[in-house]
């Protein structure tokens, strides 16, 4: 006779559990105790910050934007630096990390398929998903990263990941400690403390960046834009934009938005170490913002009782259609202008006409954008007063 056994929780991944427990314990207890008895100086702080930056940028610029999304291309030297930095960050190999991340984007918020679905709660998306074998069937499935398997740097790091991780996490702090004259102090600060901070900074992108912030580009998933989170995640806090335009090498698209990863990639391209930087078209970005604003306004109007609600909805739709049509016209003329520029035909009468129309549409777009935003603001004030 046989009985059906009740479903069990996925097995605990004890290696991950022990790594998190040991590193956190040393960071929370060992680091303060050593500081109390022996003290730290500016050298410890600077080394720790620089090591956090190296780990963080290796993940954001390397694992994330280069390998997961192919947002740009980098030469072998840069890729090796990223690969070592990724091992230093102890976040699995680039091959495994990118595979997980591509599944996340393909099935975002799907509790069964998204490896770190935010809909399962903060704890799960932040760290819980790494403590049990929730998707054990995928652990050796790299069918979605076949392109990365052709990258010799990625495969070198994947094959030697454990050795590289141990060498980087003990070797780099040890070397800095020898130079500085305090080996134990550097092992604690640039080693353990740095690793704990680096871990949770990255984990915040999976958790907080799907919970806290605005959604200017897309309301179809939980991803949020948050400039405050961007300050601690090397620019990854503009997550709503990223989930809608995931192949853009930027996350913060405005010049003033804090995105050091974007600035690093741009610098690498200037000195010839990177190329093929991908950017989303400005018009498509504006269309995404307009569509999202339309969806939000329509939903808000539909949920309140106003005597002229139908009229307002019609007006809203008319303004939206007018604005998006202007954007599409602008996009078409811009494409013609770029083509004329490429063909060096800007002196011809046809090109001059395109340039004139382009400039004219630029002015119309700005006027229409302001009109659209003003109309939406009036609606917002009206339904807030209800």
UniProtKB/TrEMBL annotation:
CDD domains: Delta9-FADS-like. It comes from the Bacteria. Keywords: Fatty acid biosynthesis, Fatty acid metabolism, Iron, Lipid biosynthesis, Lipid metabolism, Membrane, Oxidoreductase, Transmembrane, Transmembrane helix. One of its GO terms (molecular function) is oxidoreductase activity, acting on paired donors, with oxidation of a pair of donors resulting in the reduction of molecular oxygen to two molecules of water. It is found in: Membrane. The chain crosses the membrane at residues 12-36, 42-64, 161-179. Pfam families: FA_desaturase. GO terms for biological process: fatty acid biosynthetic process. GO terms for cellular component: membrane. Its main location: membrane. Residues 42-266 form the Fatty acid desaturase domain. It is a multi-pass membrane protein. Coiled coil: none annotated. Belongs to the fatty acid desaturase type 2 family. This is Delta-9 acyl-phospholipid desaturase.
């Amino acid at each position: 006779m046989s009985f059906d056994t009740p479903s069990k929780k996925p097995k605990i991944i004890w290696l991950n559990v022990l790594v998190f427990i040991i590193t956190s314990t040393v960071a929370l207890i060992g680091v303060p105790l050593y500081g109390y008895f022996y003290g730290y100086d500016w050298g410890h702080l600077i080394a720790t910050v620089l090591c956090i930056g190296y780990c963080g940028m290796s993940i954001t610029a390397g694992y994330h934007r280069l390998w997961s999304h192919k947002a740009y291309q980098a030469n072998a030297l840069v890729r090796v630096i990223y690969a070592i930095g990724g091992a230093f960050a102890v976040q699995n190999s680039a091959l495994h990390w990118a595979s997980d991340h591509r599944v996340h984007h393909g099935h975002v918020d799907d509790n069964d398929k998204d490896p770190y679905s935010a809909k399962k709660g903060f704890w799960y998306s932040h760290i819980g998903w790494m403590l049990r074998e929730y998707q054990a069937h995928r652990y050796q499935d790299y069918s979605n990263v076949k392109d990365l398997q052709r990258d010799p740097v990625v495969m070198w790091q994947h094959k030697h990941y454990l050795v590289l991780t141990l060498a980087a996490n003990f070797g780099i702090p040890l070397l800095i400690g020898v130079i500085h004259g305090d080996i134990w102090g550097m092992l604690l600060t640039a080693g353990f403390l740095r690793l704990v901070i680096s871990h949770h900074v990255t984990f915040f992108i999976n958790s907080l960046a799907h919970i806290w912030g605005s959604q200017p580009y897309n309301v179809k998933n939980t991803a949020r834009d948050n400039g405050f989170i961007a300050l601690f995640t090397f620019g990854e806090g503009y997550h709503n934009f990223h989930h809608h335009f995931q192949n853009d090498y930027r996350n913060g698209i405005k010049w003033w938005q804090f995105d050091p990863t974007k600035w690093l990639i741009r610098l690498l391209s200037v000195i010839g170490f990177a190329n093929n930087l991908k950017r989303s078209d400005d018009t498509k970005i504006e269309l995404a913002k307009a569509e999202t604003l339309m969806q939000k306004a329509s939903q808000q109007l539909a949920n309140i009782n106003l005597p002229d609600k139908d009229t307002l909805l019609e007006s809203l739709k008319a303004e939206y259609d007018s604005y998006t049509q202007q954007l599409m016209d602008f996009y078409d003329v811009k494409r013609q202008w770029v083509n004329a520029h490429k063909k060096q035909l800007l002196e011809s009468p046809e090109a001059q006409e395109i340039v004139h129309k382009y400039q004219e549409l630029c002015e119309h777009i700005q006027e229409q954008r302001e009109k659209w935003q003003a109309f939406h603001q009036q609606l917002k004030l009206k339904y807030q007063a209800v």
